[in-house]
Amino acid sequence: MKVFDELNPPARLLLGPGPSPVHPRVMRALAAPVIGHLDPELIRLLDETRGLLRDVFRTSNDLALAVSGTGMAGMESVLGSLLEPGDRLVVCAAGFFGQRMGELAGRMGVAVTKVEKEWGEVFTPEEVDTAVAGAKPKAIAIVHAETSTGALQPMDGLGDVAHRHDALLIVDCVTSLGGAPVLVDQWGVDAAYSGSQKCLGCPPGMAPVTLSPRARQAMAARSRPAHGWYLDLDLLERYWGGDRAYHHTISSTLVYALREGLRLVVEEGLEARWERHRTNAEMLWDGLEALGLVLHVPDPERRIPSLTTVHVPDGVDEAEVRGRLRDEYGIEIGAGLGPLKGKVWRIGLMGHGSQKANVILLLAALVDLLKRP
Amino acid sequence: MKVFDELNPPARLLLGPGPSPVHPRVMRALAAPVIGHLDPELIRLLDETRGLLRDVFRTSNDLALAVSGTGMAGMESVLGSLLEPGDRLVVCAAGFFGQRMGELAGRMGVAVTKVEKEWGEVFTPEEVDTAVAGAKPKAIAIVHAETSTGALQPMDGLGDVAHRHDALLIVDCVTSLGGAPVLVDQWGVDAAYSGSQKCLGCPPGMAPVTLSPRARQAMAARSRPAHGWYLDLDLLERYWGGDRAYHHTISSTLVYALREGLRLVVEEGLEARWERHRTNAEMLWDGLEALGLVLHVPDPERRIPSLTTVHVPDGVDEAEVRGRLRDEYGIEIGAGLGPLKGKVWRIGLMGHGSQKANVILLLAALVDLLKRP
Predict the structure, then answer these.
(1) Phi first, then psi: what are they for B172, rounded to 5°?
(2) How far is CA B82 from the centre of its chain?
C-alpha cells in the first residue's frame, strides 16, 4: 500500500466561478474542535446560523437551514421536496444551471415546460407570464445569477406572476447570495437555495436554503414522501428546527465555517457588501474593456457583480491563457460551459475575493499574457 | 441583524457513535488552502485518495470514490444508483440502519423484502439464502456493523449466497471501515459505503463508496437515470475517474481531510489498526463488566470493536448520566435508538479515539457517576 506524500496543495488566488478565496477567519473556524451533531452546543450554533441565514436571505421565513452538500444538493433538495411526479414545473433556462434545473426535475418524474433564451439573456415578467399561463405549473424555477453566462435576472414582478397563477417561485441564488441583493420576502420568492463557496466566502460543502410558508404548505401537501431522503427538506427541518430528530451526522466543521462566513457578511452589512462587489466589478469591467476585450453581457445592469463573462479574443487559445494564469500567476479563472465553451472566460470576484488588489493583479496578468498594450 | 459571539465550541472527547476524535494531522489538513474542483492539483489528490480508498476497502475495484455527503448520502447513492423502481431488494434488518436501507429503497419505488431479527442479532447465510430464494431480488442489502445495536455481522458466505441467486451484495460498513476487517473483494461485496467521521477519524462530510464490476454493469444496464442526481454514482465516477466532467463543486477541504485520514490508516497498517480497535474494545468490555454492567451483544465475537452497546442499569436515568459525562467530564457517548432508546448507551472507540487512555478515563467517570465500587 502506498502512503503518498504529505499534503501540499498550492495557494491559488481563486478568481473563477467558485470556490472563492476563504476569509482567514473562516479558515480559523475550521480548526475548532469537532463536536457531535446532537451536542447542545452544536444545536445552539445551528440556531444562530438559522438566524444569520434569515438575515442574509432577507426573509422572515421560519425555515432557513443549510443542506449538507454543495449548491447542486441545494437545487435537488428544493426541487425534490416541493415537487412530485406528475407536477408541472416551468423552468426559465438561459444557461447551464437553468438547464440543470430542468434536467433534475425531469429525473424526478416532474413534467417540465422549458422556456429557453440565448445564453446570456434574461426573462421579462411578461415572458414568464405567457409561459405559465398555458402550462398551469405548480412552480416556476429561475436562476437569479446564471454562473455560466454572467447574466443577472431582474426579479421585480416575478413573484406577482407566480402567485397570480398560484405557482411557487423557486430561485437559484448560488452565485448572488452575499454578493448582490437577494430579497426573498420582497420579491415573493417561495424557495431559494445557494452555496457556501461563492459570495459567502466559505469552503464548499453547505447549501443554504429557505422556504416560504406557502412552499412549506406545498411540501406538507405532498401525496408521497420527498424524492430524496438525504436531501428531504422536511426531514432536515425536523433536525434543524424541530424535535432535533437524528437525520444525518452534520459536519460541525462546515457549520463552523458557514456561521463564521455569515457573521462576516452581517458585520460588513449586506448593503456595504453588495456595494463592494458592485464597485470592484465595475473596475474589472472597465479594465477588461480598456484592454479591448468584449463582455458577454452588454448591459452593465444585467451583469452579475460577482461573476463576469468575457469573450476570448480571436486567435487566442483560451485554455493556454487559463493555464498560464494558474501556473505563472497562481490565479484561477473559469472556462466557458456549453455553447460558451472555448468562447468566454469566467472571472469571479466573490466574497473575500472581491478586492481592488485582485482586480488590478488579474488585469496586469492579462496585459502580460494577451500582449495587450 | 445580530452578529452573535465569536465561535467557541467546547472540546469534547468523542466516545459516542460518531463523529469520532479527529487526528491532529487531519485537523491540520483542514487548514490547507482551498483550491478549485477542476484544479490539476486537486485532480491529483483525488486520484491518490482513490488509491487509498481501494487499499482501505481491500479491493481491486476500479470505482472507489467519496460522495460529497455523510454516510447516509453514501447509502442513498448506492441504493439509488443500482436499483430502479420495480426492482426487488432483500434487506436484512436487525437495527436502525438496516431499517433505514429499507425505508430509502421504498421511497425509490423499489420493492423491498425485509428480513427482520431482534435488534442486536445477526444473520446466518442460510437465513439470507432462504429469504432470497423466494424473492429473486436484484440485490441483498446488509449492515456489517450495526451502529444502533453494536452487532457485527459475519460476512463469510454472504457473497456466495448473493451470487448464486444472481443478486448484488450491498454492505453498509459505515462504522467498521478502518476499525475492523472490511474485505470487499474476499467477501464478494458488490457495493460498500462508509463515512469519514467514524473509524477513518475525519470530520463528517464525505462518504467512501466502492462498486464491483458486476455492480457497475448493473448500473450501466439501468433503463432510466439514477434516482438522484447529486448522488448519482455514474455521474460522480465521470468526475472522479473519467473525463472530469463538472458535476458539483467538491470541497477540497474535506478531500484534504479524508486523504490525510486514509494516509494515517495506511501508515499504521490495516491489520495493526484492526488489532488496536479490538484490544481497546476488549479492555472496555472487561471494564464495563467489572462494573457490573451488561453488554447488549452477549457474544464478544459478534460485537463491533468500534461501537459498544451497554445496558443502562435499573433505576439509572440514562440521559442524566450522559449529560453529566458531557458536562462534568467533557465526554460524549450516545443514547439508544428505536427499541433500545433509554435502554442502552452507545460507546464508540473509533479511529484516533480508540486509545487505552480514553477507555480508562471513561470507566473511571462511570465509576464516579454510577457510584460503582
Answers:
(1) -85, 110
(2) 19
Q: Check B248 against A37: CB less than 8 A apart.
A: no
DSSP three-state, residue A304: strand
The cell for A122 is 434574461
Rounded CA separation A42/B76 (Å): 25
Per-residue model confidence (pLDDT) at position A144: 98
Q: Which helix (H) or strand (E) holds B72?
A: helix B71-82
Separation of alpha carbons A306 and A146, rounded Å: 11
**B317: which residues sit within 8 A by CB, 6+ positions away?**
none
Give residue A166's region: left, alpha or beta (phi > 0; psi -120 to 50). left
* CA distance to partner chain A, nearest, from residue B41 (Å): 7
Number of cross-chain residue pairs from A and B with Cβ atoms under 8 Å apart: 238
Spatial contact of A67 and A196, defined as CB atoms under 8 Å apart: no
Confirm if A335 and A305 have CB atoms less than 8 A apart: no
Q: Which residues of B fall within a CB distance of 8 Å from A254?
A: 203, 205, 251, 254
* One-letter amino acid of A63: L
Residue B251 near residue B39, CB atoms below 8 Å: no
CB contact under 8 A, A249 and B71: yes
Residue B359 to chain A, least CA–CA distance (Å) = 19
Grid coordinates representing A325 are: 494564469
Cβ count within 10 A of residue B115: 20
Nearest chain B CA: its distance from A126 CA (Å): 32
User: Cβ separation of A37 and B16 shorter than 8 Å?
Assistant: no
pLDDT of residue B373: 66
| Inter-chain touch B248–A71, beta carbons under 8 Å | yes
For A227-282, give the DSSP string. Answer: S-STT-HHHHHHHHHSS----S---HHHHHHHHHHHHHHHHH-HHHHHHHHHHHHH
Q: Which chain A positions have a beta carbon within 8 Å of B102's beta carbon?
A: none
Preceding peptide of A24 cis, ω within 30°: no
Residue contact B32–A22, C-beta within 8 A: no
Contacts of A199 in chain B (CB under 8 A): none
In angstroms, the CA A305 to CA A350 distance is: 8
- CA B350, CA B10: separation in Å to the nearest integer? 20
Nearest Cα residue in chain B from A30? B30
**Could you give all domains of chain A from N- to C-terminal order, each with its CATH number?**
13-18+269-370 (3.90.1150.10), 24-266 (3.40.640.10)
Alpha carbons within 13 A on the beta-carbon side of B237: 19
> Is B7–A41 a contact, with Cβ atoms under 8 angstroms apart?
no
pLDDT digits (tens, 9 = 90+) for A150-209: 999 999 999 999 999 999 999 999 999 999 999 999 999 999 999 999 999 999 999 999
- DSSP 8-state class, residue B58: T
- In this complex, do B229 and A76 lie within 8 Å of one another by their Cβ atoms? yes
Q: Under an 8 A CB cutoff, do B204 and A11 touch?
A: no
Chain A nearest-CA distance from B30, in A, is: 6
Q: Does the pTM of the predicted model rise above 0.95?
A: yes
Q: What is chain B's mean pLDDT, rounded?
A: 97
Residues β-bridged to residue B184: none
CB contact under 8 A, A9 and B30: no
Could you tell me which chain A residue has the CA closest to the CA of B11?
A33
| A208 alpha carbon, distance to own chain's centre | 9
